[in-house]
Structure formats: C-alpha cells, structure tokens
Design goal:
Length: 100
Amino acid sequence: MPTRNVSLTDKLDQFITAKVASGDFANASEVMRSALRVMEQDEREYEEKMVVLRSAIQDGLNSGIAEPGVFDRLYAYIDELAAQENVQDGSQEDDCRRTA
C-alpha cells in the first residue's frame, strides 16, 4: 500500500488522536482513509447534483420566454396559499408583492 507524509494543523492532529483514543479507529491511517472516503463520496454526490441542476437549467432555457404576467400569477398563487394557511391558523398577513 502506498504511503504519504502529510502536514496537519494542531487541531486536525488532535482530532485524529481523539478518534484513535476513543477506539473508533485503530490508528491514524484508518482515520485518514475514512476521511478521504467521505470526501470522495461528497464529491460524487456533488457531481450528481450538478448534473441534475445543469439539466434543469437547460430545460428552463429550452422552454423559451415566460409569458407576460408570470410573476403576477405567481404572487397571486403565493398569496392564495398564504390566505389558506392564515385561515387555518387564524392569523392575518399582507400579500407577498414586493414594491421597488
């Protein structure tokens, strides 16, 4: 198995020492391998999310220009949902429209 020498901050060194001392890992190499596996998994998941996001962006671009009044309809829908929620909990809120 290949070996590497790495420089660690005091905080990381203490973290590794604590993990070994707790019995969760037999030695510092196990801690480092575990950390790298987590990092590798995080990167894989990030790339999978980016593929989905890029696809959604492309779908949006391919859908063309939004119809006029789309934001008015969106605000009305949000206001309708808020009104339904307010009826359920008895509160009153102003509409969500933002003015510049």
